[in-house]
Amino acid sequence: MNVQTITDRVFEFIQNCRLNPDNWSFSSYPGGLETLYASCYSLMLYQYLGRLEELPAEEKRKWSDYVKSWQDPESGYFIGPELGADEVEIRKHSREHILQHLIVHVLPSLQLLGEKPRYPLKFAYRYLDLEYLSSWLNQRDWRDAWLEGNNLLFVGQLLLYLRDIEELASAQEALALFYKFLDTNVDPLTGLWGTNGYCSNANGLYGGYHQLLIYYYENHPIKHPERLVDVALSLQHDDGGFNPDGGGGACEDVDAIDILVNLYKRFDYRRPEIRLALRKALKQVLSMQMPDGGFVYRANKPFVHMGIRRTASMPNQSNLFPTWFRIHTLALTSEILTDDPISQWNWGFNRSCSMGWHENWDKAINPLSFSDRAEEWALASYQVIARRTSRLREKTRHYRHRIFG
User: Which of 41, 110, 194, 298 could bond to 324 as cystine, CB 3.0-4.6 Å?
Assistant: First the structure.
C-alpha cells in the first residue's frame, strides 16, 4: 500500500467534484448538483491531506465567503441548496435534525479557515435555558440510540461553540447539566446509552460514539471504558467491518474505531486485540476506495444521505460523505498502527469538537515495539486455533445429531 497514491487519488476525486473554480462550490459526486455538505467535506479532506495549508490566503477567504453565504441571519442556521423545500424526502430525520447535522459540519470547516459564522446561532440559545434543556434531554428515545447520539452531539457541540466562540457563560452550566444527564443514564454493562433494554448493542454503539466525542474533547471522566471496548470488539465481522451482518459501513466502522482508538490511548485494556481489530478493519476500509479515488459507504449498495436527493449516488459510485469519513477512519487507525504505511502520512484532524475531531498523540514516543507485535502474533495464533476448535465442535454436534437424533 502506498499512502501517497491513496491520498493523491482522493485529492483528484475532490477536484472532480468541484463545480466552480471561483467560489469553491462542490457536488457530492462528479457530475452531481451543488451541495453545501460537499464543500464542507472537501474542505475537511483538504485538512486531512495537508492541502489546506498550501492554499493562498485569498483562496481561503473565497472558500469561507462561499460557506458563510448560506447562513440565514435570523436563525443562524446554514441552509444549503440541498435543503430546499423540494430537495429532501423527510422520513426518519426531521428538518431540524438535518439543519443541525449540517451546521455541526459547517462550524469546524469555518474554524479550519480561521473564520466563524457571520451571525450568532440564535436557534441554539434555547439550550441555554436549563429548564428547556432538561426537558429536551429527558425526551430522548433510546429505542433509536443511533439517532439520539447524533442529536446529543449536536447540542453538546453547539453548547461548546456558544461557550468558546460566542463567549456565553451560561453555556458552561448547560454543559454541566448535559454531562449529568449522560452520566446518570449510561448502561454499566456496556458503557453506552439505550442498551439497558431499549436497543441493541450495535445501535447503542453507533449512537454512543457521538456523545463520547464531547467526553474526550473536555476530558470528562468516561464511565465503564472496559465495557465499551468489549462491545466494540464484539461487533467486528469477519470481513473487518463493524456491522455485525457484514459489509461494514462508513458510519458504523468509524463509530467503533473511534471508540477503540480513543480508549486505547486512555486505558491499558485489551490493547493487542484492539490492534488486531484495527489491522483487520484497515483492509476493509481500503477496499472501499473506488477507481476514481473516492470511497463508497458500502460496496454494491446505493447511498443517500438522510433523504437529501442531491446526495444520492448509485452502487459503487464514490461520494464525498463516505470519502470524508473513510479518510477520517484511516487517520484514526494510523494513530495506533505506527508500524503500518498508513501512519507515514501526517493526517490533519479537525481542530474543534466535531465528528472529524481527534486529539493527536506523538507517534514518535508511542511506537509499536517488537514485543507489541509478538503479543499480536501470539493472540492471532490463539484466535485461529479457537476458531478451528469451534468449527470442529460444531461439526461434531451436527454429525451426532444426524446419527443419534
Answer: 41
